[in-house]
Amino acid sequence: MTPFVLLDGVHKQWSPTVRVGPLSLGIPRGEIVALLGPSGSGKTTVLRLLAGFEAPDAGRLVIDGEDVTALPPARRRCGMVFQHYALFPHLDVGENVAFGLKGSAEPGAAGQKVAEVLALVGLAGFEGRKVQELSGGQQQRVALARALAPEPRVLLLDEPLSNLDPTLRERTRRELRALIKRVGITTLFVTHEQEEAFDLGDRVAVLNDGRLEQVGAADELYERPASLFVATFVGRANVVRGGGATARALGAHDGEVLVVRPERLRFADAGLPGTVRERRYTGAAAFYQVETERGERLEVLAGPEAARVGDRVYLEPAGVLTFPEERA
Amino acid sequence: MSARLARPAFTLLLAWLVLYPVAIVVADSVRGDAVATFVSRPGEWGALWASLWISLASVALAAAIGVPLAFLFEWLEFPGRKALGSLIALPAVLPPFVGVLAFLFLYGESGFVARAVQAVFGLRGPPWRLQGAGAILLVHAYSMYVYFYLLTRAGLAKLDASMLEAAHALGAGRWETLRRVTLPLLRPSLAGAALLVFMTALGSFSAPYVFGGGFRVMTTQIVATKLNGELPLAMVETVALALVAALGLALLRRTEGDELLAALGKGAAPPRRPIRRAPIRALAATAGWLFTLLLLLPHLTLALVSLVPYSSWTTEALPPVLSFVNYQRLFGEPERLRPLVNSLWMAAASTLGAVALALAAGALARGQRAPRAPRALRALRAPSPPDRWRGPIETLIALPWALPGTVFAIALTTTFSVHAPLALRWVLVGTVFLLPLAYLVRNLPITGRAVLAGYRQLDPALAEAAASLGAGRWTTFRRVTLPLLRPALAAGGSLAFVAALGDFLTSIVLYTYDNRPISIEIMSSLRLNELGVAAAFGVILMLVSALVLGFGARR
């Protein structure tokens, strides 16, 4: 099946050392893809390339079979929600939402559609409000309504939740996913938070230093990371460089880097010896910092009563990921 | 036109308007023996020296009045502080020529004060003559302290109270804190104000022209030389004045320091201290009101004189007859109304042009958003197209401000007195178009500053949001950019309009009989001793200016 949105060998070079791509990514119709990566990894640039605010040096951008690489942003039909929402301060909520609708310059013409979309985001009756008077969450929903109103082919979200406070963020995340699925629109969104990417995205594309490291479902990234970067960026991980006694005790060969998730290390009667230095209680479980005899620190997730600070323990791995050293 | 061509083309247009005429004057001035004449005449050096020291003295006087006032109004609380605080900024918004006129009527040898003194002491002649360097400095101090007052107040308002508290906690007393913390932090504001006053004083023409008498500064010298028909010499003088301006600008820019100092503090400004002791509080309030009255007196005088019919007031201390006959004549006689109409259309046209050019400059200099490369790498990156043109465009827009108005007047006369289409020169001298063109060039920095600042405050994401919603470049401009720039446009446009409306120094060089503006008409009324008519024109100029500025300041 040909993907609905296709980035085909897209490349953008800012300077000899700063670049994005070459990068290829296909998104089937109706899928939500999260672009996850540390700041400066090029996530937003990918989004802006697709929206048309940046022009690629090479490669093709295809939406619904149409090559949009040379199209100006205004004709790509990509709805975009900006990080700081970019609501027009001189227009009220209704006028903001109506902006992209045909004949929106005349008042009232787009009224029904505006009401519909505002109801969709749970802001029915907010047409006449000033955007400055809205809370952060409401502004975010107006931005979403404005992007959805012209019925775009693709929805692009640039860190849509980063401006909300943490308690609101989690709820909004679920509501946002439900809404996008209800509309059924193909969506690409940018985030630097793993939890957000896992929660919102059908698939997650991990970006590092301008390159796609891996694209896959959340569990795939976590269980079978394609690179050391993905292994350490997605989820918590103990990294042990090859060659030492610890690495050998955990089963690694020379020239390998070893990654063990904290929950994959168990306290056992025999194995890698060490001393518990810290215990961080989280309720259902606790994180333990164990110092090996060579001074390395490993993080172990176990039951809250599994050990005490100062205890001498033995660690046994129950699943180790290995990567070749040179890719580290 | 594609964006690729638009930037170079626009830069060339600006260069033709702003740089080209000055370059022609510079080139013409070194030809022939005018330079030798200039060097050999002691009068020329005298005028140049006078310009320089008058400007420096104006800076010192304006600072001596403006800075203490700023501290008084920003740091202390007393009855009437708010109202007085804005009233004393008034001289800045009135056309300089009107101020000069008002001074003449108030403090001149036949002005109210002189007459009063004469009457009280029974003197036979006027007690003084308002003439020479002292008179010029008086007018300069009166009209230019406002720059120090406003900028120092703004600087004080940005000051972080915790820095002063830190100084006190470290054992510094009040004076030491002022000397070692407050004043250094204010340096950018003070240097900025000094620069403004220096440039304004250097280019000042009305006061030296009216009050100078035999005392010549460079601006009056240039106009006199030009009226004598010695155009080559006038060009040399123009270049000399421009050089002094450039020198002053360069020197003061160096001391301006970096804005980092002011940007460091994020806390709130220190709270105003109420004056506790009642007698001192009353004294401060009274002094404030008296000072304000003193400031408004010239303008009140102007209003009064405008009500005095022709030749009805001779030796009396106060005018015996008051009537609106001057205004009736002004509006009733088409020939008298003409200058008003001229000034209005020329100010409107030049403002429209300057606003349009500023908008184009903003749109082209800003261009697209710079890519989000890591900050450390940004400096290494080759400039993207908008960046490369931003510098030249912004410099050209600001240039007319750095050169005295007389320089531009002479430069434009020289450039547009020759028919050479291939050299982009046409004969505009003697037509009604040259003066509005000069207003436009002079107003570019005013509208440009406002509009460019407006553009900088604009979130680039807004234009992108519009584009992502299907709006093309023109629609985005019309429906998003323009409405958001409206306050900047109103502010810049109104200031430019008022500056053009009250202009005297460019007008006196470039006017023709057909487009003679108000200021020229006032001058000829004065010559005919029609003081009332001159004052009535002044009052109208003042009212229209206040009205337009009020409109521009509306949010």
* CATH superfamily annotation of the largest domain in chain A: P-loop containing nucleotide triphosphate hydrolases
Distance between the termini of chain B: 35 Å
Element pattern of chain B in H and E: HHHEHHHHHHHHHHEHHHHHHHHHHHH
Portion in beta strands of chain A: 25-35%
Strand order of the largest sheet of chain A: 6-7-8-3-9-10
Estimated radius of gyration of chain B? 25 Å
The number of E-state strands of chain A comes to 18
H/I helix tally of chain B:
25
CATH architecture field of one domain in chain B: Orthogonal Bundle
Order of adjacent strands in the largest pleated sheet of chain B: 1-2
Q: Beta-strand percentage of chain B?
A: under 5%
Structural class of chain A: alpha+beta
The helix content of chain A, as a percent range, equals: 10-25%
**Annotated CATH architecture of the largest domain in chain A:** 3-Layer(aba) Sandwich
Task: Summarize the topology.
The complex is a heterodimer of chains A (328) and B (555).
Chain A: E1 5-13, E2 19-27, E3 32-36, H1 43-51, E4 58-63, E5 66-67, E6 78-81, H2 93-98, H3 111-120, H4 136-148, E7 154-158, H5 166-183, E8 186-191, H6 194-200, E9 203-208, E10 211-216, H7 218-223, H8 228-233, E11 238-241, H9 245-249, E12 256-260, E13 265-268, E14 272-281, E15 286-292, E16 297-302, E17 312-317, E18 321-324
Parallel strand pairs in A: 3-8, 3-9, 6-7, 7-8
Antiparallel strand pairs in A: 1-2, 1-4, 4-5, 9-10, 11-12, 12-18, 13-17, 14-15, 14-17, 15-16
Chain B: H1 3-30, H2 34-40, H3 42-75, E1 76-77, H4 81-87, H5 96-107, H6 112-121, H7 133-158, H8 161-169, H9 174-203, H10 206-211, H11 218-227, H12 231-255, H13 260-264, E2 273-274, H14 278-305, H15 325-332, H16 334-366, H17 375-378, H18 385-402, H19 405-415, H20 434-457, H21 460-468, H22 473-501, H23 505-510, H24 518-527, H25 531-553
Parallel strand pairs in B: 1-2
Helix pairs in contact in B: 1-12, 1-16, 1-18, 1-19, 2-12, 3-7, 3-9, 3-12, 5-14, 5-25, 7-9, 8-9, 9-12, 11-12, 12-19, 14-25, 15-16, 15-25, 16-18, 16-20, 16-22, 16-24, 18-20, 19-20, 20-22, 21-22, 22-25, 24-25
